[in-house]
Amino acid sequence: MNGQIDLHIHTTASDGTDSPRQVVELARSLGLRAIAITDHDSVAGVAQAREAGAELGVEVVAGIEVSADYKGNRAHILGYFIDPDSPALAPAVNWAVNERETRNEKIVGAMEADGFDISLERLRAAYPDAVLGRPHMAEWLMNKGYVSSIKEAFDRYLGEGMPYYRPRERMPMAQAMEVIARAGGVPVLAHPFQYGYDEEERIAFIRAGMAAGCRGLEAHYSEHSPAQRQWLMERAAEYGLKVSGGSDYHGSRKPHIQMGSGIQGGLAVPYEVLERLRP
Questions:
Q1: What is the pLDDT of residues 160-173, one digit of tens each?
Q2: Which of 237, 135, 273, 254 is nearest to 194 (CA)?
């Protein structure tokens, strides 16, 4: 095995298309030394992934990606080395489950009322092991012939500003950080260049995260350019923060993102990043 890792991976426990075991098998085939399972607001895939990792010789880090709110905008908080059985995670998981169910009901109900061949019951039957969300609705619309791709489903119907988009109500960023820390984890700001901030706003976002308990930045990311990675590495050094890195792999749902690699200048995250990230 090489010394590379991928610390941002989604499975069928949230909105990925590969099961926890499948992502570990893929990591093994790619020669990755370690991966982190970071499903959205869920730790349901960690146990299966760890079991597969022990069998196949891949180190599996227990993680989560909490969907949080920062001044009315989304903020994704990665948590590493958490105890997946910790009751401290309940506020984040329960918040997400209840909010997601309410949002799904609003979106699918509106589509049904407008004549789309869709229902929550059939979505649950089609994706029995998944945490339902807009990606599954988009795939359903594609399979039913309403659109030719998942991207078109978001562009026409489900994306922000489109007819069936409904805003999320997210957990405050400070609470998300606290939940992760209380579960024994290391809170990290995910992909800081993906929120559309200019440099001044991005620095304010990072400092607000630090004030809330953030301990790291996801500098190595599949859609960060080399210049963006360098900027984040410099800010991490300046502020005394740890660094993490991962692809944000979702399987076939995001085919442009491959495990262990990036689309802008590559993504080679050495094992030393994981060593320095440990609590």
A1: 999 999 988 899 99
A2: 254
